[in-house]
């Protein structure tokens, strides 16, 4: 159930109209890394999380709802930056009313250019946000990643927060309105906070690597292919222990073509730098399959089922419905 609270989470303010920046800010309204995409991403991911991880369902729904609050702030800011546009558009009898808004002829031309590159904006919305990115491309469900596995989704969410954070950072370079800066700084900072929340939540799921259930084939997990000529960079991504367990290391394949021929296309690749054997992998696959599937099954009430309790005073759901009054 959603409940609209009329106060904005952050006091969005602008010093004056700025239609050009309003158009840029649409990127965070209906763009791939915008607030609606974030809200829908966590909202969608939450459903399959409810049974195995009711605590993460709670977190995902809270953060999704905060992203809706941010969408409201962005929409409000865009509308205030377009303040006057709607009124001027309605002033159909005047020849060049937008001049007043846009500081002379050059300003008006800028707005017209904006309208031509993003025709829905201004012409169709006439003073409010449109559900598009800054180029007028309509919002798309393809922006939403939900893979039904929290060790995957939380990593994807951290990447999404990183992209949203840098988008705000770039946007801040295109306005010098101190009041708009204030709002953007708040929104940017919340992406940092969400990044940390998702990271902390991922840490509570153990083991969480590799993502998903199945282990990697030890013949291929630790291999780095040097697939370019000339000077080569070395670092913990292809040299020494890197991110692997104590006693393990990367196998640097300097001549990949020779390696592929020598190993009969990787089939006869003897694992190097890996301690895990194929037998251990098979055992771990069984153990993880049982663990993950039990996590879901143990929390699942077989049909009939009910999603919520009233009041919802426990995290665990769905549950068996009370059918005594049916
Ligand atoms: Fe966020």
From TrEMBL:
Top class in the EC scheme: oxidoreductase
Biased composition (Basic and acidic residues): 262-273, 284-298
Organism: Mesorhizobium plurifarium
Region of interest (Disordered), ranges: 262-326
Binding locations of Ca(2+): 58, 62, 226, 228, 230
Protein name: Catalase
Cofactor dependence: Mn(2+); Ca(2+)
UniProt biased composition (Polar residues): 299-311
EC number: 1.11.1.6
Record key words, sorted: Calcium, Manganese, Metal-binding, Oxidoreductase, Peroxidase
Annotated positions binding Mn(2+): 35, 67, 70, 161, 194
One example GO MF annotation: catalase activity
CC cofactor note: Binds 2 manganese ions per subunit. Binds 1 Ca(2+) ion per subunit.
Assigned protein family: Belongs to the manganese catalase family.
